[in-house]
Amino acid sequence: MGAEMDWRMQVVTRAIKARTPLADMAQRAKRAVAGYRPNEANIRSTLNSLRKLKGLMDRHGIDLNGAVILEIGSGWFPIIPIILKLSGAKTIYLSDIVRRIDAGTFETARQIVSKNFQSLSVDFRFNPGSDKQLQNIQLDEFDYIAPLRPEFIENSSIDLILSRTVLEHIPVADLRLLLIQLKSKLKPTGHAAHNIDNSDHYEHNDKSISRVNFLTWTERKHRFLYWIAGNNGENRLRHHEYAEMFRETGYCILDELANVDAATLNALPNLPLKEPFRSMHPEQVAALGSNFLLGVT
């Protein structure tokens, strides 16, 4: 979205895009004409999120050298896969519901990594010669699966499954099924690392509402707004509910970080939360950022 916009108008905008034939093609054409300009705040957020996940992996001695990695939801700009490649990953699968990355967005992502190369090379311990590798890296060095079809991936072949701000967009039933399907793709020694944004994403561009405004909606209202926006919204799961789902689908939680937002915590007594959120512990509701490192059971 970019400029600040009332959350209701954001719903309308999403609905129009979702129901406009060839909307994805139109957006690609717009990017080709206007150029590829990712949001600077999103870039910082992406790098910080990956640093947090890398911190959890380092804590448990997980080495990316020679790893086979699947990224869920690679989006338009494959910044994370490029960083993983420079860190020594052998094979990286990009994935999404539709194919978004092209030569232009890939080049933009490469330039972003190049711009931040010095700090990234330290934080992610790039392999020797990674500076030359970055200059020559190409999109065809990655395996791109769009739409993501887990059955196309060999069982017990993946060392690491990784996602950043993706799981919150998947409906609960679909997410449960995906977790079960992907578990069989991990090696017995494999891991999954997930960064999740538990906030109301409409607030990102409408600061007049709470960061958990969507928790004041009834389930019926949430389902309707999710549908009308072309299934483009958030599932509203909280940190502890993700933890429960991971365990139920066969993963063990090796490490987790829940970021409880102090301002949201203080605002909760004045918010008309709906069930089941009203009955949850306030810190469960106000945990707006989640980072999980999982193993397989």
How is the topology of this model organized?
Elements: H1 7-18, H2 23-34, H3 40-59, E1 68-72, H4 79-86, E2 91-95, H5 103-115, H6 117-123, H7 130-136, E3 143-145, E4 158-164, H8 172-183, E5 186-197, H9 219-228, H10 239-248, E6 251-260, H11 262-267, H12 282-285, E7 287-296
Parallel strand pairs: 1-2, 1-4, 2-3, 4-5
Antiparallel strand pairs: 5-7, 6-7
Overall description:
The protein is α/β, with parallel strands linked by helices and 297 residues long. The chain has a domain at 40-196 and 238-257: Rossmann fold (3-Layer(aba) Sandwich). The chain is 41% helix and 18% strand. The chain contains twelve helices and seven strands. It has helices at residues 7-18, 23-34, 40-59, 79-86, 103-115, 117-123, 130-136, 172-183, 219-228, 239-248, 262-267, 282-285; strands at 68-72, 91-95, 143-145, 158-164, 186-197, 251-260, 287-296. The protein has a seven-stranded mixed sheet with strand order 3-2-1-4-5-7-6. The radius of gyration is 19 Å and the shape is globular.
Give a quick rundown of the structure.
By secondary structure, the chain is an alpha/beta fold. It has helices at residues 7-18, 23-34, 40-59, 79-86, 103-115, 117-123, 130-136, 172-183, 219-228, 239-248, 262-267, 282-285, and strands at residues 68-72, 91-95, 143-145, 158-164, 186-197, 251-260, 287-296.
